[in-house]
Design a protein that fits this description.
- The protein is α+β, with helices and mostly antiparallel strands.
- It folds into two domains: about 200 residues, D-Maltodextrin-Binding Protein, domain 2 (3-Layer(aba) Sandwich), CATH 3.40.190.10; about 230 residues, D-Maltodextrin-Binding Protein, domain 2 (3-Layer(aba) Sandwich), CATH 3.40.190.
- The chain is built from 19 helices and 14 strands.
- The strands form five sheets. Strands 5, 10, 11, 12 and 14 form a five-stranded mixed sheet that branches. The protein has a three-stranded mixed sheet with strand order 1-3-2. It has a two-stranded antiparallel ribbon with strand order 4-13.
- The longest helix is centred in the last third of the chain and has 16 residues.
Length: about 500
């Protein structure tokens, strides 16, 4: 009975935390099915329920880097190799350094840290005299949301957790504290685009550092060898000529689509999955739901002409036969050479992540996700942010840990790219203005409608059905926005 009551308490708090998808950058070496699960953890809007065959609570693992905790193979965007020499110093004033020495920073993570990251944490411990203890979801069936709920219900005093656009604003408002209240927090230490994008009522709830191992950007991958064999101009050639946009993307998709002798089709482009339609709406300038951080206000944009135009652009690709939109996942299609272009986040650029294209015989390249013609190039971002949990027992230590752990200069990330072209692309898109979509977090958190099948239906609509399909879901979008705005208003 006691165990049942505890489980009910965790589930109730989990609902408050907005059961939905939460991106993690974790990945582990494995096959195609495992890759699909990892992509779901990264981007798909909606968790699958954990198996309930036993009476256990949240499936989790707790580790301490100081007691030799093992690495269970979690490898992801945090898979860079530590460079030679010192990992860098944590710059604290003497009074703070003395105060934090001997304290523990407790971290909730969605995956196990990689061996590289564990080594970096040990260096942090050595330089500061602090200890790092962490708990993570042990497998894909254990939702990160439930892990946070369990830790908070038990008042375990954890300090650090992650959120992103798929869990904003409900997770930070429900579980995290404004960071300005922490004595050693300085907004200028962090990526200002992330700080400002996730501000609520003037308060900072999440931070990151530009170019960190957990800065994930949406890019357009393409099979360079396929383009060369077909003697077609590549996306990089368009990009370097300042002519990479929706029009030239469409030319590439058209030129690379062909019917094979066996009746099969090689497509010019394949989407990650149906929910990735938001790539196109966000790139077009208006997503289904937008957020104004200055006013702390969400807006539903159903009926907006720019939104409809972006959807028309996306659906035109499929209607002309350049994309197979029936596929649940596009990554394997691209990997097998059955599609010339593929849009996804940048962790595929790395050598040692599951789903990497390193085993392909063909050469792979990537360019920024295209924008409408005449629009300044920006980069779509997965936008992970890290906040300090309510009930944190060591918020100052948590700030110092994040400053150290997220600092890209503490990694030799450049040595882990599949090739120099991908390294070049990553460096350039890191410096571009960012676009962060907000639709998923509002729809997931409001829990008034399942965004996944909605986006699938939108994805499969005919060009003539765009307005009717959007109108069908208008009330769900409006009510979700109303609920999010109410949550924001009631949290000061």
């Amino acid at each position: 009975m006691k165990k049942l009551s505890w489980r009910i308490l965790c589930l109730m708090l989990s609902l408050l935390l907005c059961i939905g998808c939460f991106a993690g950058c974790g990945a582990s070496k494995g096959g195609d099915e495992e890759t699909e699960e990892i992509i779901e953890d990264e981007l798909v809007l909606g968790d699958e329920d954990a198996d309930d065959d036993d009476e256990g609570d949240v499936i989790e693992k707790t580790e301490s880097t100081s007691n030799g905790g093992s690495n269970n193979g979690g490898s992801g965007s945090g898979s860079a190799v530590v460079g030679n020499g010192s990992a860098g110093n944590v710059n604290m004033d003497k009074n703070l350094a003395e105060k934090l020495k001997g304290t523990t920073v407790k971290v909730l993570w969605w995956k196990d840290f990689t061996a590289t990251e564990k080594e970096l944490i040990k260096k942090f411990e050595k330089e500061t005299g602090m200890k790092v203890e962490y708990k993570y979801a042990a497998n894909d069936a254990a939702p990160y949301t439930e892990l946070i709920a369990s830790a908070m219900a038990g008042k375990e005093g954890y300090d650090v957790a992650m959120f992103n656009y798929t869990s904003f604003p409900f997770r930070p408002l429900t579980t995290m504290q404004p960071m300005e209240k922490i004595s050693n927090f300085k907004a200028s230490d962090w990526d200002q685009e992330i700080v400002n994008a996730y501000k609520i009522n003037g308060h900072t709830y999440g931070v990151n550092i530009n170019g960190s191992n957990y800065s994930e950007y949406v890019v357009m991958y393409y099979n360079k060898s396929m383009f060369q064999r077909a003697k077609q101009k590549t996306p990089r050639e368009y990009w370097e000529a300042n002519n990479w946009n929706w029009d030239t993307f469409m030319d590439c998709a058209k030129n690379m689509t062909k019917k094979n002798s066996d009746g099969s089709i090689t497509y010019g482009y394949v989407n990650l999955f149906a929910q990735s339609v938001s790539y196109w709406t966000a790139a077009g300038g208006t997503d289904f739901i937008s957020y104004n951080p200055a006013k702390s206000q969400f807006t539903a944009n159903i009926g907006n002409a720019t939104l409809e135009k972006s959807l028309q652009q996306f659906l035109t690709i499929a209607n002309r036969g350049y994309m197979d939109r029936t596929l649940p996942y596009g990554v394997d299609t691209f990997r097998k050479g059955d599609a010339a272009m593929f849009s996804c986040i940048s962790f595929f650029m790395m050598k040692d992540v599951s789903g990497s294209f390193g085993n392909m015989k063909d050469e792979i390249d990537a360019v920024p996700f295209p924008m409408p013609k005449g629009q300044k190039q920006k980069t779509l971002m997965d936008a992970s942010a890290f906040g300090i949990l309510q009930g944190s027992k060591n918020p100052e230590g948590a700030i110092e840990f994040l400053k150290y752990f997220l600092n890209p200069s503490n990694y030799n990330k450049g040595g882990n790219f599949l090739n120099n072209n991908l390294k070049d692309t990553y460096a350039k898109i890191s410096a571009m203005p960012k676009i962060i979509p907000y639709t998923a977090g509002v729809m997931n958190g409001a829990a008034l409608a399942d965004y996944s099948p909605m986006s699938q239906l939108i994805c499969k609509s005919d060009l003539s059905q765009v307005k009717a399909t959007l109108e069908k879901y208008k009330n769900q979008f409006n009510m979700s926005v109303e609920k999010a705005n109410k949550k924001v208003k009631n949290t000061k």
